[in-house]
Amino acid sequence: MPNTEIELNPVDFITVGTIGPKGQRVFYLQAGKDNQVVSLIIEKEQAWALSEAIKELLEDVEQRKPERTPTQEELQGMDMDLREPIDPLFRVAQMGLGFDEDRNMIVLVATEILAVDSEEEFEELEPGVVRMWCSRLQMRVLIDHAAEIVQAGRADPRQNGRVVYYWT
Questions:
Q1: What is the strand order of the sheet 129-134 is part of?
Q2: Per-residue pLDDT tens for 106-155?
Q3: CA angle, 11 as apex, 60 and 115 as ends, to 5°?
Q4: Paired residues of 30 in beta bridges
Q5: What is the C-alpha separation between 56 and 53, in angstroms, rounded?
Q6: What SS3 class is residue 106?
Q7: Is residue 163 a part of any domain in this protein?
Q8: CA nearest neighbour of 133 among 37, 31, 44
Q9: How does residue 32 score in pLDDT terms, banded at 50, 70 and 90?
């Protein structure tokens, strides 16, 4: 049995955000339903990969099951800010996406990264899991928002943690 197993079905909101100055930002994936807010720590690369994976999934789903194109007002009307309290449940090891055709919902499954000292300890533990059921509209907005958050860092991402020398 996992340490934590949470099912947000369906979510009221889902977002990606950061806390901290450029170069030291901590990335969060956050979702909530009713009064429950779940915050998970992710890597910058995971935020970018999530955006790309959702885009691919939605393109595939649209070919099989078309849906009305949302208006600009619908896309821009969603609050994508992180909600308080931002108390991370765990650091994400991997994420997966799925589509339930009957419900017309996308599920995002985030799995916890385990930090253990021995292989025996690893075999005894199961990672925490959070399942977030989202509408296509919520995911469309998340695509663009996650991409913006990733690009809002340093002008040249190759400079992450590196000293750059210039000779003239």
A1: 5-8, 129-134, 105-112, 88-100, 36-42, 26-33, 13-19
A2: 999 999 998 766 666 656 778 999 999 999 999 999 999 999 999 887 55
A3: 90
A4: 15, 39
A5: 5
A6: strand
A7: no
A8: 31
A9: very high
CA distances from 9 to 33, 82, 91, 136 (A): 8, 19, 21, 14
Mean pLDDT of 18-32: 93
Quick one: CA torsion of 101, 78, 31, 11, rounded to 10 degrees? -40
| Residue 164 covered by a domain | no
48-101 residue pLDDT tens: 999 999 999 999 999 998 887 777 777 677 889 999 989 999 999 999 999 999
Structural domain range at position 133: 5-154
Residue 168 lies in a domain: no
Report the C-alpha gap between 160 and 149 in whole angstroms: 15
| Residue 143 belongs to some domain of the structure | yes
Q: Count the domains in the chain.
A: 1
Closest Cα to residue 61, out of 95, 10, 100? 100
